[in-house]
Write a structure and sequence with these properties.
The complex is a heterodimer of chains A (about 230) and B (about 350). Chain A is α/β, with parallel strands linked by helices. Chain A folds into 2 domains: about 110 residues, Nucleotidyltransferase, domain 5, CATH 3.30.420.40; about 80 residues, Nucleotidyltransferase, domain 5. Chain A contains 5 helices and 9 strands. Chain B is of the alpha/beta class. Chain B has 2 domains: about 130 residues, Nucleotidyltransferase, domain 5 (2-Layer Sandwich); about 180 residues, ATPase, nucleotide binding domain (Nucleotidyltransferase, domain 5). In chain B, a hairpin with a 4-residue loop joins β1 and β2. Chain B is globular and about 65 Å long. Classes of the chains: A alpha/beta (about 230), B alpha/beta (about 350).
C-alpha cells in the first residue's frame, strides 16, 4: 500500500511516501523561507523519487495541527483534492500527537507534553502518557496562559515543541525545575503522521475531522449586539 | 474542452464546470453570508475556515451536476487574486492538487477579469470579441472601477475608487441605518418608494481640472465614498431616530442615489471620452435593479449597447473564473502546464 503524508503545521513542512511500512521518499522545506505553495513544486519531485504516479497512492495521511493555520489549510485541502478523483481515504491525525509518538520512540519519559505558540499570550498544550502514547487530558488540546502552563505538568514530563526557541524566551524558569525541557525546536514529521494514521486506520478508528485544530475562535472580539 | 473553475477569493466558496466560455455544465456556490452577518462584514478568518470545510463537497457536487467523471476535466482554473490571502490559498491548494492528480493544465485567473467574463455567461450573449472595445463598470463589495476592454486579455484601468468600494459604502450605510448585512439588497429594499432627493448626500469627488490625476488615473473617472458614509453618520446624529421612523425609505433612497449617481456619472464620462459602442456592468452591486435601470437609461441616451451579467453570475462564482480561462486555452506549445501559483491578494489590472 502506498501512503502519501503531508505535515505542514510547523515552521518545517514535510512530505513523505511510504510503501507499506517503509519510508521511500521525503521532502522537507522551511515555511519561514518559502511559501506553503512550494508544496506543489516538491510534490512531483517526491513522487518521482518514490517512483509512484499520483493515481497510484492508496492512502492519504495529513497532520491537522495545532499550528500554522495557513500551512494546515493548504495540506488538508491538497490531500483531499488529490484523493478526490480516485476516492482514496484521507485520514487526519493531530500533528502534535504524531510529535509525541516520535518523542516516545526516541526519548522515552513518563509523560510527554507537546506545546506550541498559540499567540494571544497563550500556548497550546497536549499531555501524553509516556508508556501508552495516549493523550492524558480528556479535553484534548488546550490553550493555556503562557505564565501558567509549566505548573500543570507532572514531575519528569518531557517537553517537546516546534516553537521552543521562541517560547523559551518567555519561559518561567521557576516553573521548570520538575520537568525536562528541550534544547531546540522539534518538528512533527510526515512519516510520524503517516504511521499514526495507518495504525489508527488499521484499528478501525475514524479519521479526525478534516479541518485544522483551532484553539481560538475565528473572531477574538465578542459578537456585536444585534 | 471542459474547464473546472474554483473561486475562494472572499466569502463565496464556488466551483463550476464549463464546456466553453459560455456553456455552463454546472455552477455551485456556497454563500457564507449567514456566518459573516453577525459581524456586519466579511471576517477573513471565518471565510478561510469555511472554504476548507465546504470546498471538497462542492467539488464533488459540481462534477455530479455536470454529469462528468474526473476524466472529463481538461483543465483547472482558479482565482489567484485579488482577494483575501488566506481565502485564496484554499482554492489555489485544491486547484493545484487536482491539476497534478489529473495531469491537466492549471490556470491562475484574475478575479477582476473573471467578472468581465460574467457579462457573457449566457447562451444568448455575444462573445467578448464581438463587442470590444467596450467599457465595464466593475462594482462590488471589494472593487469599484472602470475598465476599457480592447479584447481578450487586453484591458486598461480607466478609474477606480480611491477609498471604499461602492458595495462597501452600501454595507456601511446599511449598518448605520440599522438594516443589517449585506447592505446592497437591504438598502435597495428599504429604498423602495423613497424619495432619492430627500437628503442631498455628497457624490464623492467633484469634477477636477482637465488632466488632473488621482492615484495615477484620470481623476474624473475615479470614485470616493468615504465622505458619503460620514455624511450619513452626521445626518443621523443630527436627526435622532430618523432611521427608525417613516423617513427610512427616503434616507435609504437618498443614500443609494448618492452611491449610484457617482457610478453612472463616471460611466457616462468614460463612454464620452473613450468612444466605445458598448458598456457593461459586472460585480455584486450590478444585481441592483435601480442601478440596472439607470444604466439602461444611460445606454439609451448615449446610443451604446448595455451588457449586464445574468443575476446569478453578478456575485462571486466559479463559472466566470472558468470562462476567463478559456481565452488562454489550449496552452501554447512549450508553455508551463502546471505553474506553481501563489495567492496574489493585491492583483490588479495591467
Amino acid at each position: 500500500m502506498i501512503t502519501l503524508a503531508l505535515e505542514m503545521s510547523s515552521a518545517q513542512n514535510d512530505l513523505a511516501v511510504l510503501a507499506d511500512d517503509r519510508l521511500t521518499a521525503r521532502q522537507t522545506w522551511s515555511a519561514r523561507d518559502f511559501h506553503h505553495t512550494q508544496l506543489f513544486e516538491l510534490l512531483p519531485l517526491l513522487l518521482r523519487d518514490a517512483g509512484v504516479e499520483p493515481a497510484a497512492i492508496d492512502f492519504f495521511a495529513v497532520g491537522r495541527g495545532p499550528g500554522s493555520f495557513s500551512g494546515l489549510r493548504v495540506a488538508i485541502t491538497a490531500a483531499q483534492a488529490l484523493a478526490l478523483p480516485g476516492g482514496q481515504p484521507v485520514f487526519a491525525v493531530s500533528s502534535g500527537a504524531a510529535l509525541a509518538q516520535q518523542t516516545i520512540a526516541e526519548s522515552p519519559a513518563p509523560a510527554i507534553a507537546v506545546i506550541g505558540d498559540a499567540r494571544r499570550g497563550t500556548i497550546w498544550l497536549g499531555l501524553f502518557d509516556g508508556p501508552t502514547g495516549h493523550m492524558i487530558d480528556p479535553d484534548g488540546w488546550t490553550a493555556v496562559p503562557l505564565s501558567q502552563w509549566g505548573a500543570r505538568l507532572p514531575a519528569n514530563t518531557r517537553v517537546v515543541s516546534p516553537d521552543w526557541h521562541r517560547l523559551s524566551a518567555f519561559w518561567p524558569a521557576a516553573q521548570a525545575s520538575h520537568i525536562i525541557t528541550p534544547t531546540s525546536d522539534t518538528y512533527p514529521t510526515a512519516e510520524a503522521v503517516a504511521r499514526l494514521a495507518l495504525a489508527r486506520h488499521a484499528r478501525g478508528e475514524a479519521s479526525e475531522p478534516l479541518t485544522p485544530i483551532y484553539l481560538h475562535p475565528a473572531v477574538a472580539a465578542p459578537r456585536p449586539a444585534p | 474542452m471542459n474547464v473546472l473553475g474554483i473561486e475562494t477569493s472572499c466569502d463565496e466558496t464556488a466551483v463550476a464546470v464549463l464546456a466553453d466560455a459560455q456553456r455552463i455544465l454546472s455552477n455551485v456556490v456556497f454563500s457564507q453570508i449567514a456566518r459573516h452577518r453577525p459581524y456586519g462584514g466579511v471576517v477573513p478568518e471565518i471565510a478561510s475556515r469555511c472554504h476548507v470545510e465546504e470546498l471538497p463537497g462542492l467539488l464533488r457536487a459540481a462534477l455530479e451536476q455536470a454529469r462528468l467523471g474526473w476524466d472529463g476535466i481538461d483543465a483547472v482554473a482558479v482565482t489567484q487574486g485579488p482577494g483575501l490571502a488566506s481565502a485564496l490559498l484554499v482554492g489555489l491548494s485544491a486547484a493545484q492538487a487536482l491539476a497534478l492528480r489529473l495531469d491537466k493544465p492549471l490556470l491562475g485567473v484574475n478575479h477582476l477579469e473573471a467578472h468581465l467574463y460574467s457579462l457573457f455567461l449566457d447562451a444568448s450573449a455575444p462573445r467578448l470579441e464581438a463587442v470590444a472595445p467596450f467599457i465595464v463598470l466593475l462594482v462590488s463589495g471589494g472593487h469599484t472601477g472602470l475598465i476599457r476592454v480592447e479584447g481578450p486579455g487586453r484591458y486598461r484601468l480607466l478609474g477606480q475608487t480611491l477609498d471604499d468600494a461602492a458595495g462597501e459604502a452600501l454595507d456601511k450605510g446599511a449598518k448605520l441605518l440599522g438594516l443589517g448585512y449585506p447592505g446592497g439588497p437591504l438598502v435597495e429594499r428599504a429604498a423602495a418608494g423613497g424619495d432619492p432627493e430627500f437628503v442631498s448626500f455628497p457624490r464623492g469627488l467633484t469634477q477636477g481640472q482637465p488632466g488632473e490625476r488621482a492615484g495615477g488615473l484620470d481623476r474624473d473617472l475615479c470614485f470616493s465614498y468615504s465622505g458619503l458614509k460620514t455624511a450619513l453618520l452626521y445626518y443621523l446624529k443630527n436627526h435622532p431616530g430618523a432611521a427608525a421612523g417613516p423617513d427610512l425609505p427616503h434616507l435609504a433612497a437618498s443614500y443609494q442615489a448618492a452611491v449610484f449617481d457617482a457610478l453612472v456619472e463616471r460611466t457616462a464620462r468614460a463612454i464620452a471620452r473613450e468612444g466605445v459602442r458598448a458598456v457593461g456592468c459586472a460585480g455584486g452591486v450590478s444585481i441592483n435593479k435601480t442601478l440596472r435601470a439607470r444604466l439602461a437609461r444611460l445606454a439609451e441616451q448615449t446610443g451604446v449597447r448595455l451588457l449586464l451579467a445574468p443575476p446569478p453570475y453578478c456575485t462571486d462564482n466559479a463559472a466566470m473564473v472558468a470562462a476567463a480561462a478559456f481565452r488562454r486555452l489550449p496552452l501554447p506549445a512549450g508553455a508551463e502546464q502546471r505553474p506553481t501559483l501563489d495567492a496574489q491578494p493585491d492583483l490588479g489590472f495591467g
